[in-house]
Amino acid sequence: EAQVTQNPRYLITVTGKKLTVTCSQNMNHEYMSWYRQDPGLGLRQIYYSMNVEVTDKGDVPEGYKVSRKEKRNFPLILESPSPNQTSLYFCASRGLYGYTFGSGTRLTVV
Amino acid sequence: GIQVEQSPPDLILQEGANSTLRCNFSDSVNNLQWFHQNPWGQLINLFYIPSGTKQNGRLSATTVATERYSLLYISSSQTTDSGVYFCAGKTGNQFYFGTGTSLTVIP
After folding, report:
1. Cβ–Cβ under 8 Å, residues A2 and A27
2. Fewer CB in 10 Å around end: N or C, chain B?
3. pLDDT tens digit sequence for B28-84
4. What is the DSSP letter of B80?
């Protein structure tokens, strides 16, 4: 089944403790991206990647890092999470027929 | 970035009713899609519809790219249709979402 897999689905962490949210797609898509969803603000793009080793900032990149060492994986890294990064995060990949989203990761930073 | 307006922001329907959701873009977009976010937060792809009309069961969508809008029609609504409906489109390398229409279908 064609899909985008994110892990974990839920995460509670403390301020300043580095964390990584993994994202993997099995559709051989070149383009992948990360979004965060916040009440009243909708979904906003954090980072995107056009292909392996090519990444670029979206609208809200501050406090996040990404890497794209291989086509299928696009992890989101929070080096020093803060409470304002509490949000619902989505990974997506784009193919010929549009975007496919992962199931989301609900992150709480206390 | 572009602005994506969705209307109405909230909608309450009696089961069996029909509805039309609208999405306006401030500039031309590609890869226009409609998504349904279910109560568990999952984003389900409904339509990839850069132009024209598509139908899938009780749902259909029409995009008029030259006028920068798209419509989502829901017929004979069911309680399982409840959730938030988003439209989104691509310009450059970024994909912009509307703020959504929150639909509640009551029995």
Report:
1. yes
2. C
3. 998 899 999 988 888 999 999 999 999 999 999 999 999 999 999 999 999 999 999
4. G
Question: DSSP 3-state assignment of A39?
Answer: coil
Binary contact (B94, A58; C-beta < 8 A): yes
For residue A46, which of A78, A3, A9 has the smallest C-alpha distance? A78
pLDDT value at residue B30 = 84
Residue that has been written with the tokens 């009780």 in this structure: B58
Tell me: the pLDDT tens digits for A44-66? Answer: 999 999 999 999 999 999 999 99
**Is B97 in the A-facing interface, judged by CB distances under 8 Å?**
yes
| Among candidate residues B10, B16, B2, B5, the one with its CA nearest the CA of residue B70 | B5
